[in-house]
Specification:
This protein is α+β, with helices and mostly antiparallel strands and about 180 residues long. Helix content is about 30%, strand content about 30%. A 4-stranded mixed β-sheet has the order 1-4-5-8. Strands 2-3-7-6 form a 4-stranded antiparallel β-sheet, with no helix packed on it. α1 packs antiparallel against α3. A hairpin with a 2-residue loop joins β2 and β3. The protein contains 4 helices and 8 strands.
Length: about 180
């Protein structure tokens, strides 16, 4: 099980504010980015977050959310501008307390009988606006950074090593 430190801390160190960096220390986290009927097209997400005073009201569904049934917090990609000219625009990143009313977690039983992934449903979930990471509607940029870190972390490749190796490959390709 990955903690929020494994995936989100590098992301928060780069894009989060000081309070978020302090507050979300070593807690169990789930990453909510995949949705039904979108396949690997993360930008096709439909989960909405509508600003309502000092909160966002979140509605929608995430799927294949690993360890959501254990998580204290979830970091979720949400659509904050449904009228954005491109689907990669109008996406934001929210940190959501899993104890917030309106969140339902349902297990997805795997072919081996195991249960590590879940569906997560959001029904009028009130998320404090202070839980927005970075700027509203810039979540796609942040998600690309997060996914790069996640993939290199899963592969067991240190991020600094990864960056150095890619730099060397680019330099060789230029030669």
């Amino acid at each position: 099980i990955q903690t929020i430190n494994d995936l989100v801390i590098p992301y928060l160190q780069r894009f989060g504010n000081d309070e978020q960096k302090e507050r979300y220390g070593n807690r169990w986290a789930a990453m909510a980015i995949t949705e039904p009927d979108t396949g690997s097209d993360l930008a096709a997400l439909k989960t909405t977050a509508v600003k309502d005073g000092d909160h966002y009201i979140v509605n929608g569904q995430k799927t294949w959310t690993t360890y959501a049934h254990y998580a204290d917090w979830m970091f979720a990609l949400v659509r904050t501008d449904p009228d954005a000219p491109r689907k990669q625009q109008g996406i934001s990143f929210l940190l959501i307390d899993m104890k917030t009313p309106g969140i339902t977690v349902r297990p997805i039983q795997l072919i081996d009988g195991g249960h590590e992934v879940n569906e997560v449903f959001f029904e009028d979930v009130r998320v404090p606006a202070e839980n927005l990471v970075g700027e509203e509607n810039k979540g796609w940029t942040y998600a690309k950074y997060l996914l790069t870190h996640e993939r290199t972390n899963i592969a067991g490749v240190g991020f600094d090593l990864y960056v150095r190796m890619v730099g060397e490959a680019v330099a060789r390709a230029k030669d």
